[in-house]
Amino acid sequence: MPSKPACQAEACDLQSCLNKHAYQPEKCDTVLRQLYECCDKFHTETSGSGESSACPQHSVVQRWLRNHPKGGA
Known about the structure:
By secondary structure, the chain is mainly α. It has helices spanning 8-20, 29-45, 58-67. The protein has three helices and no strands. α2 (29-45) packs across α3. The relative contact order is 0.18.
């Protein structure tokens, strides 16, 4: 049985949050951050060579995290 893609649970949590809040992404910022932090860890652990259907490319993840610092800037 194949294993689930990395960060799949976080991606599902984001989808659930978006469904619950009528696709208002600003209401799901915390869940989105959790997904991107998971993806950043995944990409770092695989030295950027891993692929997951739940994660964008590492450069996209890094840019998002840089543009959305914790605590909001």
